[in-house]
Amino acid sequence: MDATGISLEIIGKGAAISAALGGAACKALGFIPKETMMQAVIKELAAIGISKDLIDKNVAVAVKCFESLPAYEITNREIAPSIPVKTFTIPYQEPVISSPSVYASGNIVERQTGRWRLFKPVIHYDKCNKCWLCFVWCPEGVISLDDSEYPHIDYDHCKGCLICYEECPTKVITIEREVTAW
After folding, report:
1. Average of per-residue pLDDT values in the chain
2. Model-level pTM?
C-alpha cells in the first residue's frame, strides 16, 4: 500500500499520513469496522481544530487505505495472561559515571541520512537571488554555498524536512517526491 501516494492523490500532501496508516492498522487488526475507524478519524481531527473539508479528505484517505488491504481473520482471541512487572529503583550516580563519554570524532558523514526522506527540495538556480535563507535555516547544515554564493544541497544527508522550501521567499525551491534516495 502506498500511503504517501494515496494521501497525495486525495489531500495533495504526503507529509501527513496518519489517517492513512490508521485506516490500514484498523484493517490489519481485523476487528475494527470501517465505520468505527471513520468516526475515530473525524473525532481526532475535529478535536484539534481541522476544517471539515480537510477532515473529509482525511476520512477518504483512511477509507481508501482500509479498503485497499485484504481482510484478515483472527482465529485466536484468547487474552494473554498478565505477567507481574517488577519495579526497580536506580540509584543516582554522578554524571562522570552515569553519562556517556564520546571520544571519537563525529560520524555524520558516514550516515546516509538522505535515505530517510519522502520528498526532496530542488533549487532552481535560474531564479535564485542568493538570499542564503535556505542555507541559514537548514537545521542539518546540509546546504552549502559555492564560490558564487549559490546554495547547494548535500542529498546524501538531506533528511527532507523542507524547511528550506518553507523559508525561501522567492519560492525557487520546489518539492519532488523522492523515489531514488535508497
Report:
1. 85
2. 0.50
Q: Strand 119-123 to strand 143-145: parallel, antiparallel, or no bridges (unpaired)?
A: unpaired
How many CA within 13 A on the CB side of residue 113?
A: 14
Q: Which of 128, 153, 156 is nearest to 143 (CA)?
A: 153
Which residue, chain included where needed, has cell 473529509? 56
d(CA 7, CA 156): 26
Report which residue type is found at 150: Y
| Helix axis angle, 52-68 to 34-47, nearest 10° | 150
Strand ranges (DSSP E) for the chain? 119-123, 143-145, 151-153, 173-177
Measured N-to-C along each axis, helices 18-29 and 3-10 cross at an angle, to the nearest 10 degrees, of 130
Q: Which three cell numbers, joined as nine digits, stand for 178? A: 523522492
Distance between CA atoms of residues 116 and 108, nearest Å: 14
Is 104 a residue whose pLDDT tops 80?
Answer: no
pLDDT digits (tens, 9 = 90+) for 116-152: 888 999 999 999 999 999 999 999 889 999 999 999 9
Are residues 163 and 173 in contact, defined by beta-carbon separation less than 8 angstroms?
no
pLDDT (0 to 100) of residue 101 = 57
